[in-house]
Amino acid sequence: MIDLRNTDCMILLSEMESKTVDLVLTDPPYGMDFQSNYRKEKHKKITGDDNLDWLPKWIDEIARVTKDDAHLYIWCSWHKVDVFKIELERHFKIKNLIVWAKNGGGMGDLKGGYGGRHEFCFFVNKGKDLNGSRDTDVIDKAYRTGNAYHPTQKPENLMAYFIEKSTNVGDLVLDCFSGSGSTAIACHQTKRKFIGSELDEDFYEISRKRIDQVMAQTLLF
User: Fold this and answer.
1) Which of 198, 174, 171 minimizes the C-alpha distance to 63?
2) Helix (H) / strand (E) containing 107
3) Staple 196 to which of 34, 165, 175, 207, CB 3.0 to 4.6 Å?
């Protein structure tokens, strides 16, 4: 089941029952007004990325809809990691700040600063064990997207890794900021249920097209 909606995430959350979600895996706006200049054709700016005014109420709702033993993976840039940490700790105990060591390096200040090649992801465990072996909090495998569809696109195989570590087949995964649809695709590939939202109509259409293609390929083979 893939249920992706072109709507504000707060509307989606308001329609969801309490304690129904097994895993939250999402890459929200970082509140840094990010503009990607890496590609020749610039990606559009991310809707809602100019502030974090929405964050407290969003986390309140996440706390409501997640099960008592749910896991959460919340991506965050180092620029606002303190704000996300403070808000998350109002409801949750943070287990790890996972570091994804990416290939290559960020553009940014080419002469005055170090090239960034990592992203942070908060991990919250509300009460159940991880599946499989005990892995480290630094992920340096060759996960790569090229950001072809979205300025902060995450690899489907990286999303699938988190999904399989934290859920079982048939569990429900929530992504409130679907972007290019990586989490939804990973859910389909790992036989998990997905519910999510994407406010930007252009990115929603990209997600929908990618999801439909993957599902059609599954039916074909």
Assistant:
1) 174
2) none
3) 175
Which position has the token pair 């390096």? 105
DSSP letter at 71 equals E
Q: What is the pLDDT of residues 175-185, one digit of tens each?
A: 999 988 999 99
Instruction: Name the pTM for this structure.
Output: 0.86
pLDDT digits (tens, 9 = 90+) for 11-59: 999 999 999 999 999 999 977 554 444 444 444 444 555 789 999 999 9
DSSP state of 201: H
Distances (CA, A) of 204 to 45, 63, 93, 157: 14, 25, 32, 20
End-to-end CA distance of the chain: 18
Q: Using an 8 Å Cβ cutoff, are 120 and 75 in contact? A: yes
**How many Å apart are CA 142 and CA 130, to the nearest integer?**
22
- Give residue 55's region: left, alpha or beta (phi > 0; psi -120 to 50): alpha
